[in-house]
Design brief:
The protein is an alpha/beta fold. It has one domain (36-290): 3-Layer(aba) Sandwich (Rossmann fold), CATH 3.40.50.300. Helices cover 35% and strands 20% of the residues. It has helices at residues 9-16, 30-34, 90-97, 121-127, 144-150, 158-163, 168-180, 196-208, 226-239, 252-258, 276-280, 283-290, and strands spanning 52-61, 64-74, 79-83, 105-110, 114-115, 129-132, 214-218, 244-248, 262-266, 269-274. Residues 1-39 have low confidence and may be disordered. The structure holds adenosine-5'-triphosphate and magnesium ion. Adenosine-5'-triphosphate (ATP) binds at residues 61, 66, 84, 86-92. InterPro entries: AAA+_ATPase, ABC_AA/LPS_Transport, ABC_transporter-like_ATP-bd, ABC_transptr_urea_ATP-bd_UrtD, BCA_ABC_TP_C, P-loop_NTPase.
């Protein structure tokens, strides 16, 4: 762990109890006290080679440790696959990263300087972390184009939304994204008439409109046809590099197509990590997951 990511026990305790953040008496003085406070979209410090960093994260639900000393990090532009048995804590990990669930302890950083545990869910989205839940959530009564346009209007009031017009850069971006998500022929179609796979791509497109640095995708190909799954793999490979991706999936052939490093979660922590071949050959992984 780098010194920049460290936090004194006093600071951690203060945060946990909602007290003023002590900074002046620490070695790094006021600098530490300011970490994460002035973060704005587009500014993620990746000089340490990590876009996401979790260390010793724990969360319990009624005494049950859903996440147990979980540590992992993701490099900028990486496409990380996460696999593991039902109940391993994969979705809960995403809940923690996106601010939906607060961990009991541990460290969660976006880049080297943004302490995600100090931000609310909406702020985390604005900082550049987009999340795709398993079920598609598009506006069925609106067209593909309108759905994408709407993705830029979040956090504007009703009046401002009605007056909102895409500028030329945003129009270009929308056109590019429609191509990327394979919906160029469906711009004017009602989202409700799209196939399940197309709805999933549209929702990914809506996330892309906000130009996220990091995309979290929970079981994105569940319920897709084989052809849709293959196209989704292509899509993710296109997004890799421009964005960092964390993809949770149970579909091993999909994982084989897209994966570089695969992290296996079990009982709320990392059981194994490596290429898919490496983790598939790991006896512990076979025991708890693949061999079932
Ligand atoms: N809000 C909650 N309250 C109580 N228990 C919870 C809560 N959220 C998750 N859990 C429990 O935490 C554990 C981890 O759940 P999680 O949904 O993160 O697993 P998962 O790895 O995503 O599983 P799956 O592959 O089935 O989606 C499970 O035992 C689940 O029942
Ligand atoms: Mg899950």
């Amino acid at each position: 762990m780098t010194p920049d990511l460290m936090e004194s026990g006093a600071q951690r305790t203060a945060r946990a109890h909602g007290l003023p953040y002590p900074g002046g008496s620490t070695e790094s003085g006021g600098r530490a006290a300011d970490f994460g406070r002035h973060a704005t979209p587009g500014e993620v410090d990746i000089t340490h080679g990590r876009i996401l960093y979790l260390e010793d994260v724990c969360v319990s639900f009624d005494g049950f440790k859903a996440i147990n000393k979980l540590s992992l990090d993701i490099a900028p532009g990486e496409l990380r696959c996460i696999i593991g048995p039902n109940g391993a804590g994969k979705t809960t990990m995403m809940d923690i990263i996106t601010g939906k669930t607060r961990p009991d302890s541990g460290t969660v950083f976006f880049g080297s300087t943004i302490d995600l545990l100090r931000h609310k869910e909406a702020e985390i989205a604005q900082l550049g972390i987009g999340r795709k839940f398993q079920k598609p959530t598009v506006f069925e009564q609106l067209t593909v184009f309108e759905n994408l346009e709407l993705a830029l209007k979040t956090d504007k009031g009703v009046k401002r939304s009605m007056l909102f017009k895409l500028d030329s850069a945003q129009s270009d971006r929308l056109a590019e994204i429609i191509e990327t998500i394979h919906l160029a022929d469906s711009v004017s179609r009602m989202a409700g008439n799209l196939s399940h796979g197309q709805k999933q791509w549209l929702e990914i497109g809506m996330l892309l409109m906000q130009d996220p640095k990091l995309l979290l995708l929970d079981e994105p190909v569940a319920g897709m046809t084989d052809e849709e799954t293959a196209r989704t793999a292509e899509l993710f490979l296109t997004l890799k590099g421009k964005h960092s991706l964390m993809v949770v999936e149970h579909d091993m052939s999909f994982i084989r197509t897209i994966s570089e490093i695969v992290t296996v979660l079990c009982d709320g922590s990392v059981l194994a990590q490596g290429t898919l071949d490496e983790v598939q050959a790991d006896e512990r992984v076979i025991e708890v997951y693949l061999g079932r």
